[in-house]
Amino acid sequence: MSGFPGFDSNEYISLPVEFFTELLPAIEDRAELLVTLYVLWWHQRVGEEQPFFRQHDLAHDERFYMALEDVERTAAEALQEGLERAVARGTVLQLRARRSPTEPEETWYCVNTPENRARVAALEAGKREVIGNWAGTEEGDFPYLRPVRANIFTLYEQNIGMLQPIIADELREAEREYPSEWIEDAFRIAAERNVRHWRYVRAILERWAREGREDEKTGRRSAKDSERYISGPYRHLIEH
Asked: How high is the pLDDT of residue 133?
């Protein structure tokens, strides 16, 4: 391998200070680090004109794509996992989009900046007119953008910690068995009570499955509903 000859270009990009103070010390996975750096570079170069990108858009950069490959993962696997970890960490936001009612949805991503958070909030509020030319130049492009509900792996890493392979099968089974809004609320209750353990989240879900929920239509819990999960048979799970 030849050595790096040094920097000759006078062209520079800037990185958010949070990359150095929060992300860099926390990221342990090589693919996540490479993907994070690349999407920050992408955002600075084209973010205002095209803030949303797809997984295969990143794969078009052959040098970056091939650099992702390692002894354990193909480049495609590493790119997918790197994006999933970046979404789980909150570095990247994820949405679904289709160009027309007859075309299939695709997964789109954007860097988690104040501007993009505002765009996502506008989408959640149904304000389609804010889309503009986000991912294309033709009028009417992507009128069907919508935010993606966080999957159970994302919720686990956001509320509990780094996902361990030993727990992955349990999470997949739970995602098949329980409604997504139940899972989100169960993680939220655990986080609010500072009980960051999967067994506590699972206990909430199991109880809801046995006894039902007080407000299943909205997926929102009442104060009474929250309190009974910290005073009932699972109270020992939060005692320190």
From this structure: 45
